[in-house]
Amino acid sequence: MNHKGIDTEALHDFLIPRLDPALQGFSTLYRLTQRETEILILSVVHGLSNREISEKCVISEKTVKNHLANIMNKIGIRSMRKLFSLLLYHVLSSHEKSSR
Question: Which single residue of 7, 47, 77, 100 could bond 82 by disulfide (Cβ 3.0 to 4.6 Å)?
């Protein structure tokens, strides 16, 4: 639980199973590799820093940056903020379509 009283573990356990199909759809749409998808999830969904991702994946921080740059190039964007926004839009759109 964090300092604002939000049970982040429970939130994570609730969200991740619901995000998985949407994330796979996003990865397929933009032809992301399995590693790029993993980096995307760790960065955008879990909020890990490049250093934390590099430690978790046992790769260099430069390699993490290269993966993120490749993701953004494939999508045609230039910022992590835009990446987060597009992913969120895709997840929400996917959820809306599946609940109809």
Answer: 77
Query: Alpha-carbon distance 44 to 91, whole Å?
Result: 12
Q: 18-36 pLDDT, tens per residue?
A: 677 888 899 999 999 999 9
Q: How far apart are the first and last CA of the chain?
A: 33
Determine the Cα–Cα distance for residues 8 and 93; give it in Å rounded to an integer: 23
Distance of CA 72 to CAs 1, 41, 56, 67, 93, Å? 32, 14, 21, 9, 20
Q: pTM for this structure?
A: 0.78
Report the distance separating Cα 6 and Cα 2, nearest Å.
Answer: 6
Q: Please tell me the distance from the alpha carbon of residue 66 to that of residue 43, in angstroms, as a whole number.
A: 13
